[in-house]
Amino acid sequence: MASSKVSNIFKFKSLAPSDTARLAALFAAGLKGGDALFLEGPIGSGKTFFVRELAAALGAKKLPVSASFNLMRTYPGRLKLYHFDLFRAGESDMENIGLEEYLGRADGITAVEWPAAAGIRGTEPLRLEFELAGGNSRIIKVTSPEAARKTIAKIGSKWLKK
Questions:
Q1: Interval 29-58 mean pLDDT
Q2: Could you name the CATH architecture of 3-160?
Q3: Are the CB atoms for 97 and 72 separated by under 8 Å?
């Protein structure tokens, strides 16, 4: 497990699913209502696993699975988790899904997998890019807007204290 920072880019190395779960729990503890996460990366890189562990750390009773056949689901916990999986979304889906209505909602955190499909402009989410790094290892690169820089720095310092 390592963390490094360049400007507003933080990199976390997860050596196993338990590391990714721990990182998701740190995010759950550090995020606040209105925060948004855009998760990118190839299939099988851990995006849905991260979202599931985020929901668990927020206290959700029912946990996300791949939502590829459901574009959006809500998971109540300490904060609601609004999970959008846009892998199979088309332009017509985006007209009716109402993603913009969930971004910034004070009662929850919005997590969007495959956000490029949404074509959202003008929002400043935390961007998590998942990269395969051999075996169960992943590199999770977090790009944060300036407003979230301190939050991510705190998560990074807690990550290093294991």
A1: 94
A2: 3-Layer(aba) Sandwich (3.40)
A3: yes
